[in-house]
Every structure is written in structure tokens, then in C-alpha cells.
């Protein structure tokens, strides 16, 4: 799957992010190639979410470069940044569906307003995506009437409607009741098997082990280990990682 | 009402500070040959705009003639003569007594006639004609008090009412030191206060006092026995330096005096209008139904002012809220200062300032001034409501929207504002309801809103409470209707 000669879809160089006195990300250098699924794991407070949000500039990095298809996002003006974000879908821990719009309106909004798609095309795409996430009968429901798992699947469909090149997932199952985690992971797994490039911040070790091409272990503002899941879970190198895995397995 | 005098003073101060033109030194001598342009300007526009406060019978008062409220009285007959002698049309502007001289100084009117006494203090800011009428001072009291009250001296420890800014007000203040002085803007309010035992007597100029006593059952007029403080009697006020107008008016006054027109013609005419007040047919005319057109017109104006102000206030408020939330320091600074300043000053002063203050630069009609002031005021309050609404939307909504490629402004338009609007709808409704009520203040600059009309009906019918009751009910219908309307839309916005 990995082809080192091709320009990586995403690349960060010396990425640093400081909040006030707090150095959350110290020096991060990584690449994501086309079609790769990356799972970003690590103890809470390690800066995983911040890192993810730096990838589409929802958080402005303090220094360093974020390259999307070779283009440094930190140097783009607002307008070109908006244009680039179309290609990077994002799914949030708390879903963040638009409560004043129906499910299908949530999905159609960006294609119609941003891309200028006509309503019929957008509706057709939205219906197809809803079918893909198994919610074709919920098109006209409002988000508040859906379960957490359903809302998150709508959120995934909404992000996919822009036909992004990369999908960023920020702890997509952390806010869900346990019985709903599976349905969301299933959708993500299908997506991965279709070849979508994904960066997933998660605590679902099973998902990381089975689906990821690579696991990034993050702690103390650095990516401490970057390895294939099998290698990482069976032979962690750093003490930090060993400690983390030991705690996870205890639970 | 004392507050009002303070605001007015403030506005006058500002106006005078802005408008010092160096003509303050002009001597108001009736023999001075005129070199100014005032008379030729009046002749050029073909009309003489006269300001008056028509609650002062028999000098000036309003009468419902064929369903229209007309200002009549002795002063109006004099004005007619003055205008006629100048060869121009007479146009009458009604306003509060307190606002008259400000209106004169700011060029809203060409002359003021309102039974106004010529005093040295007033003569500092305006030029007076010769005195056309001089009367003594009376007290209006209840018939039942006739035995106990003989002069102002009998009123020690009691309350005496007088029109704010009037000569009688100062007489009471200076001489009846043992009594409490209650100042009000309108004589009709004073009469009402007397009838409802809020005050024990009203100090009024003699013909006025007699007119009220004659037309209001249970009231009588007695001589107040004030010491003469050198009053010169009533004269016509003109802008400082308008010698040409003063000269022309003096010529007319001289003719009126030589023919004794005031006593032979003007006062009896005024009496005729007043006399009808007690006859049976007049009673029918004084029923509130006969004045329905006044109330309808008032409601129309109030609704119009409110509707326009709600729309402008809402747009302005949205703009200010976005400016306040923006990262641009200048936009933020402008918005914060505007909101703080407007919320920190009374609407009444804002209205007076826009009408009189800006009137020095551009002449804005009263109605437009009122709409502008109420809109600008409402914008500041709406801005804060909208800001709180926008802040109440979780940041995740913005992030989700931006991550989909929507720009900052699209996010505001499609995601944040629609949700914020739903959250703040009840607060916005409150804001609009108070806007309807607060718009009533435009009546002080003579906008013909509901309050203004109810004043006219009060003055016309000599009935104090009934017009107020009707006005209150009409306001309630409007505000209640609006809050039901807001509720209806609120229901339509709720999805969950």
C-alpha cells in the first residue's frame, strides 16, 4: 500500500502548538500516504486532538508546516484555506450536527452552498450516502430525534458528501453508549476498505489493531512510536508505550 | 417632568454651544432698523411657521372642528394678523412649552407665541416683540376650598402646581416658599392633578385660569395676590437678531392695540370656542367616540414608527453584534463604544438631540427624527441580545461548518445566526415590545403618535382620565398582539 516515491497526502514538519504556557505539541514530523489508515493513540492530554485539528487548521499551529498534497496550509489565506478544507472531512467526538436542519439538509448544505451543486444532484448523493451508513429512512428526521450512533453516522455521511481526499476522525466513538460503538466502527471500517485515507484519534484498540495500516503513539507532545499495529501492540519499544498498553489491558 | 427640564437644559446647552454664531450682541431694540434676512426669508417661502403649546386657553387651545383638531385662541388670531400683515400663510406647529424656545433657536419655527411673558432671562436667548397683553395671576382651586384659600399665602404646607418654565412657576418658587411646587408640562395634566387631589391649587395666568374654571365643573379661579416681580406681560418671541420680524410684528401689535382688537374681538371669539364645552351638543362631541380618528391616527403612527424601527434596529443590531464579535479591533471598538454610549444615555435626550441638535446641520422633520432616534437606540439593545445569542452557540457548530469548507461568513449566515435567532427570540420579542412602548417618547418633539393624540384629546375635551385609559388599552393591544405574533413564529422555529 505504501509508496514512498509519491508525494504524501499529508505531511507535517516540526509542528509545534503552544496554548499559553502549555506546550501541547513539541516537534512532530510525520507523513500520511494515499489510502493509508492511521490510528493515533495515547494517554489523554497527550495532544492527539490538537494535532488532528492542526491538520485542517481548526487550530493554528504555533510553528512548523502542515502540507496537504504538498501545499503548506499555514501559509494560505482564508479563502484558499476554505477551499482546501473541502477536501478534508472531519468527524467530531460530539457529532456537531446542525440541530436546526434535518438529516438530509445537514448532508446537502456544504455541497450546495460551497460547491454550488444543484439540489437534485446533492439530494441523490445524500441519499446514496445515507444508504451507505444505513440511515436511508432518517432523511427527514431532525438530529435531536436520533441516537448518538445514528447522529455520528450522519456526521460521517455529511463529511463524505464533500467527496474528501482525507477523513479526520476525532475520537468518533468516545461519546457513544457502548452498544452503539460497533455501528459507527463498522461504517469506518467499510470506508477504510474502500481505500479512504483516514487519520483516526481513538481509544478503540481493537479497531486500531484490525483496521489501521499504522499506529502512531503520542505522548508528552511527541509521536513516540510509529509502527504497524502488530508490531506496536506486541513489541512496543518505549517505556511510555509499554506503560500505556499495560494500563489499557488492565481495564 | 423635572427630569425633562434637565434634559432640555442639556440639549439647549449643547445646541447653544454648537450654534454660537456671534449674533448674541445684537440689541433687541424695537427702533433698530432691520438689516437681517429673516423677514425676506419668510416672505420667500411664503409661510410663517409659528410654534405654540396649545393647552393655554384662551391664548391657545385645541378644538375638534369637523373631526380635525385645530389650534384656536387669542394668540392664534394675533398670529393670523401678523402673518397677514407680512403677506404670508400661517403654519402652526404644536409642541411642549418647554421645547418652544429651543425650536426657535434651532430654526424649527420662525416665531413663538404662547402667552409667553417677556422676561430678561428669556430675552437673553431670543428677541421679543412689544408686549401685546398683560394679565394678572390667578389660582385655580376646587370650589370646596373657596372658603379656606384666599391667596397663595393660604397654601402654606400645601402643593401648588404650575407649568414648567412658565412665569407662574417662578412666582410660586420665589414667593410661595412655604408651599410645595409641582411642575408639569401641560396645563391639562395640572387640572387633572387638581381634580385628583394631587395638588391643592394651580398658579395660572388670569384669562387661562378663568377659562379652565368656566369649563371644568367644581373649579374656580381666584386672584393669587402675587407680588409684582416686574412682569411685562405676553410678547411674541423671535430668533435672536431677527429684527425685521420683530419690527413687522410690532407694527401689527400696534394696530391691534389701537383698535382694541384683543378685547373687542379675539377674547370673545376664543370664549365662543370655550363656551361650547358645557353645552349638551358639546358633550356629545366630547365623547371618546367622536375622537376615534385621533386614536386611529395615533395607533397608525405608533405602529409605523415601531415597525420601521424594529426592522432598522434589527439590521443595525445584527451588524453591531457581528462587529463586536469580530477580531478587527477598530470594528470592535466602534461597536462597543456605540452600544455603551447609546445604552448609557436616555432615549429622550437622544430624540431631542437628533431633532434639535442635528437640526442645526441638516433639517430633519420630527417624524424622521423620531424614527432615526428610536431605531438607533433599539439597535444598541438588539446588538447585545444578538451577541448573547451568537455566543450561546457551541463552538463545535462553527468547527463542523468550517471543516466542511464553509467560510466564516457562510458559517455565520447558515449555521450560527439561524440557531442564535431561535435562542434569543423571546428576548428579542421583549425588546420589540418595549420598543413600541418607548416610541411614545417621540411625542415630545411633536410626532403625532398615540400619546400625542391622546394629549390632544385631553386638551380638547377637558377630560383627563378617559383618553389615558383608551391609550393604555390601545398600547396593550399592540404589545400583546406583537408578543402573540412572536410566540407564533417561535412555535414554527421549534423542531424538537
Automatic annotation (TrEMBL), chain A:
It comes from Furfurilactobacillus milii. GO terms for molecular function: ATP binding. SUPFAM superfamilies: P-loop containing nucleoside triphosphate hydrolases (SSF52540). It is a peripheral membrane protein. InterPro entries: AAA+_ATPase, ABC_ATPase_HisP-typ, ABC_transporter-like_ATP-bd, ABC_transporter-like_CS, MetN_ABC_transporter-like, P-loop_NTPase. Keywords: Amino-acid transport, ATP-binding, Cell membrane, Membrane, Nucleotide-binding, Transport. The keyword Membrane applies. This is Amino acid ABC transporter ATP-binding protein. The keyword Nucleotide-binding applies. It holds the Pfam family ABC_tran. Residues 10-245 form the ABC transporter domain. Its main location: membrane. It is found in: Cell membrane.
UniProtKB/TrEMBL annotation, chain B:
The keyword Transmembrane helix applies. It is a multi-pass membrane protein. It comes from the Bacteria. Keywords: Amino-acid transport, Cell membrane, Membrane, Signal, Transmembrane, Transmembrane helix, Transport. Residues 299-486 form the ABC transmembrane type-1 domain. SMART domains: PBPb (SM00062). PROSITE patterns: ABC_TM1. It is found in: Cell membrane. The chain crosses the membrane at residues 294-322, 352-374, 464-483. Pfam families: BPD_transp_1, SBP_bac_3. Residues 1-28 form the signal peptide. Belongs to the binding-protein-dependent transport system permease family. HisMQ subfamily. This is ABC transporter substrate-binding protein/permease. The lineage of its organism: Bacteria, Bacillati, Bacillota, Bacilli, Lactobacillales.
